[in-house]
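Hi U.,

Before I forget, here's the chain from the pilot set. I'm dumping it here mostly so it's searchable later in email.
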Amino acid sequence: MRLLLVEDDVMVASGMKLGLCDAGYSVDWVGSAERAEQALQSESFDAAIVDIGLPGMDGLELTRRLRSNGQAMPVLILTARDALHDRVQGLDIGADDYMVKPFELPELLARLRALLRRSQAATSAVLSFGPLEMDQAQRRIVLAGQVLEVGPREWSVLEYLLMQAPKPAAKDKLLLALTGWDKEITPNAIEVYVSRLRAKLEPSGIALRAIRGFGYRLELKAAGDGAATSPAA
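Structure:
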């Protein structure tokens, strides 16, 4: 999942970005609302974390503009302001959640997971597909009753596939889930991670099928003949 962090305090932003990246997110950071608007004109993000007290345009106005322009991605507002009317104003203009500084990273991560689940129409921190279960809160994957070990980028690819299942996941969206401005990953790299995941999933009856010209889809193999099927949505 790719996040846009809008925070003008360099030390705060650095600490948040480190914690979010350690949790498996791809994070791009900008220090102003104006730069955030520019980024959103050319890039795609799964969610934004926006500080209110920004230089120039503040975070509330940025959020209002995002919603008026039809941006539907989840927005989590961060602020040192803890008055009730500030929280109400932030939610009324289109923010999805509101956190008051100082805050603990585990709570921020939990709130992000909840926002992303709602945006993907998921209801649980555990994503399931056949014998596969991914616990996003515990950062653990269980396949056919056994813990499955995956690398950080394999985790990101599989998480996005599970969020989309049974629908296919676009290859360009998978690439965005892995990369940010400070990283360079070629589209062919997705094929490497897909190949690794395929080798781990197929022995337990889960196929990772390539959809020509589009991306990939998780499917369940039919018993007996090795064919793959998608479960009903």
